[in-house]
Amino acid sequence: MKKIGILFGQENTFPKAFVDRVNEKNVKGIKAEFVKIDKVKQADPTEYAVIVDRISQDVPFYRAYLKNAAISGTIVINNPFWWSADEKFFNNALAEKIGVPVPKTVILPSSHRPPDTSENSFRNLDFPLDWDGIFEYVGFPAYMKPYSGGGWKSVYRLENKEEFFARFPETGELTMMLQEEIIFDTYFRCYCLGTDNVHIMQYEPRNPFHERYIRELKHIDKKLLKKVEDYVIKLNKALGYDFNTVELAVRDGIPYAIDFCNPAPDADAQSVGEENFNWIIENAANMAIEKANMYKKGKVNLTWGTFISGSVKNSK
Q: Does the pTM of the predicted model rise above 0.70?
């Protein structure tokens, strides 16, 4: 029997619906369940062929468990090693290298020195920074946000450099990015499973959270939708994520990738809506079953992106 496990936290609707859908398919030799952990011994294989990870970004113990599981053969969705190293600034650089438009972005040293550092720790940093050059490159309005992490935490919208200098000290020891604001007319949030199975959702990030997924869809040009789909696939193939969302803002007909490092994306029935929820449950179940069928005991079964494995070339 090949087991598919799901590791989760505060979610309520997705984990049970996922397990139920896999089991309803009644595929011979495959069963889904909630992951159970009672002890974690080094290099000890788990009982699971596949684990879908929905929580390890918040629980370091779970991340360690998944890495241990992965080197012992379990297919972990998503790759916990790559996810541990991943962050938004690198992903923006990656997007540029593979030809996907992204907002102009710079990374900033933390406003406050990190623990156990002194002035001598920053002798390579030319300070003050070339603030005028940074502001000229990015422009205003701009967003300041952590280079790693999500959930709209510590995100600032800034109108000018005076606002920047007023708010920057509030960020403390966080490493931040300053990013061009894309004034958009259309916005998409896209599920992507298995790097190439895409579900495009119209989305309005300026609405309250529970109203962001648009139920009454407006007509969108098919050529634009195809470009959006192509960019989503291109990014996920480069990253190697099997379960991700990509957000794109369209300005003057060009989709700009805004957020594409979200490998534990919202899949709650109440927020995404019935149609989107049914799509993600059905397709996540199919993907997990496919992965379980591919599983070979004792083999390293991790997915690595084409960029990381060296096959993506600079398309510029």
A: yes
